[in-house]
User: What shape does this take?
Amino acid sequence: LQQFSDTGSRKEHVKITSESKPGFLERLSETSGGMLMGLVTFLLSFYLLFTNEGRALRTARSLDEGLSLVIALDSIHSVSQQNEGRLVHLAGALSTSKPLFDPSYGLSIQAVKLKRNVEMYQWVEYEETTEYEENGEIKKETKYSYNTEWKSEVVNSRNFDREIGHKNPSAMAVESFTAVSPNVQVGSFVLSKGLVDKIDDFKQLSLSNLEDPHADVTRGGDYFYHSENPRRPEVGDLRVSFFYAGLSGDDPHLGSADKVTVIARQRGDQLVPYHTKSGEVLQILYPGDLSVEEVFQKEHASNTMKTWALRAAGWLAMFVGISLMTRIFYTLVDWFPVVRDLVNIGLKAFAFCVASSLSLLTISIGWLFYRPVWALLIGLLSVVPIVVAKSRVPPKKQQ
Assistant: This one.
């Protein structure tokens, strides 16, 4: 059964659907499917936690190895054969052989990357759902609202609940793209593709010094509009903005070329990846003029942050997996509100303690081959959540 009600506005409507309340066997079947998904999530968490520790320790060792081997270059304007194949550190201004162009809009800039970002004025659907029980049925009330916004991706209005009056074009007349300079240098050294990929600090390009490129294009602020009236755009209108990364020449409006610091292997006049004995790759680029110590401090900090983020993700995956696998106990008693709530709290506490213990145990096993003493300490720490949980259980009364 479906009931529709309109608020009187073309931009908003409400749909109510009804379905019978699922029986015990149906809920048990759904829980069984959730248990299988929980098992997969549970097993994946072990893989994530274990491999993350190995990755973190290999990266840390590679960084320490790199710090002990790196050579700071005296000059970036001459290539010394003595440093062939060695890990080198240098800092200097970016340079490119040719400016990047967008002939469609009469725009050029001396930079490593130039991004054209195209947005279209489109309908966007939002939905807000609430569920409630009425007369033994589960009712779902969904409120759909529509708004017009600038979007850089085409919004498929065919998926809307009500497309009539909210139809979007199926494609953009102008495409977004990113141009990358084929030859990027710091002094006499050519950067590898991997290093160029790290130059991604995009800034919006001011269009105040440019004229309107075509009769049907109007400049407004830092946008080119394909619209009859940019102040009151219609669905299907376009606006185009530009971003650049890695200014590689002195510009009267943007200033001096950007400086970068690079640590990589010297191969001729090229800077390429350096493979450490630990099996990791060192190919580092940071904006600004940094010392060797500052670069490696940043890399260690980044490695630590990534390690803890993946540990948290692994623990959460394990917690969710255990919760899904034990959900069947909640389903068996969900007819009794008080018992159901107590079981729910107990299952959550159980999942929390077990996930914490198993996560710490898995991390300790990951450290076993690298730092045995730390592995033993973390292994002992993994017992703490279980001991705490056990101490919370009241002792049996003596007969």
User: Anything to note?
Assistant: Helices lie at 24-69, 193-197, 292-325, 327-332, 337-367, 372-381, 384-392.
